[in-house]
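Here we describe the complex-level prediction in full. Unlike the single-chain runs in Section 2.1, the two entities below were treated as one system.
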Amino acid sequence: MALVLDAVRRGARDLAWFWRGVLGGDAYDKYRAHVEAQRAAGDPGHELMTEREFWRDRTDRQDANPQGRCC
Amino acid sequence: MDAEVLDADHRRWTPARIAAWAAVALLGGIAWVILAVVRGETVNAIWFVFAAVCTYLIAYRFYSQYIERHLLGPDDRRATPAEYKADGKDYVATDRRVLYGHHFAAIAGAGPLVGPVLAAQMGYLPGTIWIIVGVVLAGAVQDYMVMFFSMRRGGRSLGQMARDELGVVGGTAALVATLVIMVIIVAILALVVVNALAESPWGVFSVSMTIPIALFMGCYLRFWRPGKVSEVSVIGFVLLLAAIIGGGAIADTSWGIELFTLDKVTIAWAIVVYGFIAAILPVWLLLAPRDYLSTFMKIGTIVMLAIAIVLVRPVIEVPAFSEFASSNTGPVVAGPLFPFLFVTIACGALSGFHALISSGTTPKLIEKERQTRFIGYGGMLMESFVAIMALVAALSIDRGIYFAMNSSAAATGGTIEGAAAFVNGLGLTGVDVTPEVLAQTASDVGEESIVSRTGGAPTLSVGLANIMAQLVGGRGLMAFWYHFAIMFEALFILTAVDAGTRVARFMLQDSLGNVIPRFRDTSWRTGAWITTAIMVAAWGAVLLMGVTDPLGGINTLFPLFGIANQLLAAIALAVCLAIVAKRGLFRYIWVVALPLGFASVVTITASFHKIFSGVPAIGYFAQNSAFREARAAGETSFGTAATPEAIDAVIRNTMIQGVLSVVFVTLSIIVIATAIWATWRSYRSGGSATSEDDAVPSRLYAPAGLISTPAEKSLEAQWAALPAGRAPSRTGH
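The structure predicted for the assembly as a whole is:
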């Protein structure tokens, strides 16, 4: 029983992870990981944006670089 | 160590593998025999699923690997743009499974849902064969190759690659063709929405509610909870369901009917105004949130429909080849099977538009080169499966109802009696539809009428409602499912309309910038407004022309959509041909030459039919001169045009459509000719310098396909064991 529950929980977590990734909800986590990795590698050139700043910047950049959607 | 290990592992044929592939081949073979050879009264829909899935598996395993090995040669030791240009924003290495979902959501839209529905008039077999064989040999090949070549070039767009490979003339022709094609595609998608919403208060209400819902979601993400994308999508989805249910209640009230019953012309103007405003509003307010909603609905509904078809297994009574497979006179789309089947179903089998997505966005997110096969080729197989499901849904409807819904109002008179008389008069075996059946179906789906609801979307919605209602809710929920499906299609199309307008506006600004440099500055407000207005006017004019067309709109314009889309495919494949030739791979060049040749023959033949055919129902200019003569003879009504104004409208419309066909075909012939010339030059010199970016050694590893093999797992473990400084950590799962 515990095994089944565990498998269900893992399945649900994987699905949530997949869904979040497809919608792009993990974009800030990735960005932060990228900047932190660069800093760890001794490249302090990047200011880390806050979450709010990041999402504003993201949609504002989409204004200038539109992406097509297919038919 | 890696590539050789993997390759050896992949090539080893264990008995279990042989048995599994033999089983897949056998099941697929049986399914094809049942569909194509056995001629029973009916056929079960499950055989479509088996035939499709088994063929996809075999094509993916063998043909796409053949392409990988001989034509592309991905190298896991080479870093992708997402690694060597990583910026945490545009260039981000993304897990292959997530990127697959992402890419699929970007390529799949209303196209694969609409085309197969219209092609169902020829019977089930022509459409099924073309969707499955077409995707394996053409559509998926194009998507895969364009994605790979773009990835090797830092994520360059198709237009840039065309300029690099084909020179100034070919590149410019490709750019102009892309712009014109985009206008046509946006216009015809919008026409599908107009036809689905006209005279439908329920549909108009629920679809227009998506605008306030999206605005709310945009503000939520901007001001209250930035980045909570999954959360806001769930909220949006619940609001959407509320809008659909609420629409049913409102369509029952007299004020609701009065307020939301709109005719086609009004809705067309509303979409034109909407398109302009949506394209100049900031992305965060409308486009981005609606994109989340659309992705959410798209993947959710498609998975739901697949499960429903497998569980319900509808029985299909449509013959393999209908009476219209061998005649020119189909009421849904006119023209002979060759070439018109192949332009009616574009998306799902071969869609040139995908080349714009496969170059640009997706290549910047790919983690490893070998993953392009799964994402590019595999992603397109999934879209093809969507097309098969749409075909099954359309086929599951009674044929009488199908033709009553898809014949133009000019033929049916728009009444149930007229529709029944027209459909029964078509002389189709086994078709006997009564006005009562049509009235009953309309009331089941909560509409005033279903007669002459052309465009494919309403038919698909009736099919989907039929199938879903058998699974959940029975007849009582049919109206809900119908409007759910209408909403689902309208959502994609509206997203495609404003995204398309934006992309087209930037392309126009870029081109105008060559003459008036100020237009290059995309933050210049006035310039943005002018170019947006030009693009909206262009597709709006085509849309209004389709809406007011006395000949019926969809049946004259839809072929133009397919021709446009496949000409774009021909352009993309021409670029691939030139690149393969540059690499000197002439032994394997047939892999590209085959779909390119087919797409060119189909589209050029179809264009020539449209331009030169003497049959008025097919040739634009033949229609034009027939109506011109009628006007000269002083007639006040001719054919389906009842007034002198309608005669003038036909003369104008057919002239515009004819000129557009000429423009398309000329541009594509230029592009294809320059590609052949570039190929010939490469052949003479035995290949030439590559336009790829320089190779950068990779410092990360990830498996290639959906499921990692044992060899890949052991490699992954070895990479994970490396000291942190040597192997950059992967983000994500």
